[in-house]
Design brief:
Elements: H1 18-30, E1 35-43, E2 53-54, H2 58-66, H3 72-80, H4 86-93, E3 100-104, E4 109-110, E5 117-122, H5 123-127, H6 130-154, E6 158-161, H7 169-181, E7 186-187, H8 190-196, H9 206-210, H10 215-226, E8 231-233, H11 239-250, E9 256-259, H12 264-277, E10 284-288, H13 293-298, E11 306-309, H14 311-314, E12 324-335, E13 341-343, E14 358-364, E15 370-377, E16 389-390, E17 392-397, E18 400-401, H15 407-419, H16 423-426, E19 443-444
Helix pairs in contact: 2-6, 3-4, 6-7, 7-8, 10-11, 11-12
Length: 450
């Protein structure tokens, strides 16, 4: 049975780990559940060799938190299986997040220890959201970070996301959205187009050619239906003959040819020469076949107009998770809205955290280039102005969404944020982040930021 929230959309309440509810059960029993709390999402380090990351998935987090409601069937199952007791079941039956969320804007770049997202509310409200928030941000940010590097490698050429057949069906939609945010031009995934207004593209696969008596017949059929501006897949049999057949079917105003095999650089050069000799000088060349940022960069001098990325892109180009964690950084020792918060932190070797709610800024030079990621502890009464561009924005207040831009607006912000980076930051070669909000540098907004 498909579970539904009271608003008629799929519930996200069970997209979580068992221990979230056992913690809740114990916290309800000892009273901690009703204490004010602050949780932060950050990453201790970037994937090996990466110099920056890109925040993606915030819009999906907002949707998922709104849909985090337990229906009668879910609560009954949790009680029947012993996951929760009666007190916890009664709490879950009326659960709705009424706290606040602040976050780096979607499309923003981030570095180690950047406080990407902050959740405030009671311990009971915040603790159960950990798994859901991390599953979205870790996946979408991994794809967006890989996509941003591919955009750099493409140097302004068209990029198409086409990885739907290489990942889970729902992850495919999220990946298409994340890639678009980071600068891809379109996706092959229709649900991403329907749900998020990502432009979609697609023409035909090898199966269409094989379904006809020969290649010329397949091309004639496609052109008759889609017009001469279509893209013809020319490497089913012999690429050179495929190009001749494509021009014969569509004429010299053929939109594009796609090559999906062989040495793509050599194939593109031969294709360009042949197309020009046939008079199809305006026909574009698209290449696909397990492209990542390094393969795209290697094709920089080849006459390629469009890149299609799939397998490597939806897998984060070798790094399928952003490595973000969700940690409690402050808790009140008594219930009530005015009970003071006490900073708490984890001190385990290699997995430490810095206590207290943080505020982040990006210091910029006179040319608008990023010079430092400044993260300071927040104290009540601290001044609003900070030492640079403020990175967090209010997203949810008292359970109500106050920031929910569409993908087109997010793309604009991403381009502006990425423009603050230097050539060193954007280098595709393995390296370490030039900017980092190291915990030892976290100071007090009322004083110095060492």
């Amino acid at each position: 049975m498909t579970t539904r929230t009271r608003r008629g959309v799929p519930s996200t309440a069970l997209l979580t780990d068992h221990y979230e509810l056992t913690m809740l059960r114990a916290a309800l029993a000892d009273g901690t559940a009703h204490h004010r709390a602050v949780f932060e999402v950050f990453t201790r380090r970037l994937p090996e060799g990466r110099r920056y990351g890109v925040v993606a998935g915030l819009g999906r987090v907002v949707e998922a938190v709104a849909d985090f409601r337990f229906d009668d069937d879910q609560v009954a199952w949790l009680r029947a299986t012993g996951v929760v007791d009666d007190r916890t079941a009664n709490h879950l039956a009326t659960y709705a997040f009424t706290g606040s969320i602040d976050a780096y804007r979607e499309g923003e770049v981030y570095f180690p220890h950047s406080p990407v997202l902050t959740v405030r509310g009671t311990f009971a409200q915040c603790v159960v959201l950990e798994t859901l928030i991390l599953s979205i941000l870790n996946h979408d940010s991994a794809v967006a970070s890989a996509a941003a590097r591919m955009v750099t490698a493409a140097r302004g050429r068209t990029l198409l996301e086409m990885g739907s057949r290489r990942t889970h069906e729902h992850a495919a939609v999220a990946a298409a959205r994340a890639a678009y945010i980071a600068g891809f031009d379109a996706t092959s995934n229709l649900d991403a187009g329907f749900r998020y207004a990502v432009p979609t593209r697609g023409t035909s696969a090898h199966a269409f050619t094989l379904a006809h008596v020969d290649e010329p017949a397949a091309f004639v059929s496609q052109v008759a239906t889609l017009g001469a501006g279509t893209s013809l897949l020319v490497d089913t049999y012999d690429t050179a003959q495929g190009i001749r057949n494509a021009v014969a079917a569509a004429g010299t105003h053929l939109g594009a040819v796609r090559i999906d095999s062989g040495d793509l650089a050599d194939e593109a050069r031969r294709a360009r020469a042949l197309l020009d000799s046939l008079g199809a000088t305006s026909t574009r060349i698209a290449v696909t076949s397990d492209l990542d940022e390094h393969a795209i960069a290697a094709l920089a001098d080849a006459p390629v107009d469009t890149y299609g990325a799939g397998t490597r892109l939806v897998g984060g180009s070798g790094h399928p998770t952003a490595g973000m964690v969700y940690k409690l950084v402050a808790i009140a020792d008594a219930p009530g809205p005015h009970a003071p918060l006490r900073p708490v932190e984890k001190t385990a070797a290699g997995k430490g955290s810095m206590g207290g709610r943080k505020i982040a800024y990006r210091a910029l030079d006179d040319q608008g280039g990023a010079t430092r990621e400044i993260v300071v502890r927040h104290l009540p009464g601290a001044p609003g102005a900070g030492p640079g561009r403020a990175l967090q924005t209010a997203v949810v207040r008292d359970g109500h969404v106050v920031h929910d831009p569409g993908p087109a607006e997010i793309r604009v912000h991403h381009r502006a944020a990425k423009a603050e980076l230097t050539a060193t930051d954007l280098d595709l070669a393995p390296g370490t982040p030039r900017l980092t909000a190291d915990p030892t540098d976290i100071g007090n907004l009322m004083g110095a930021t060492a």
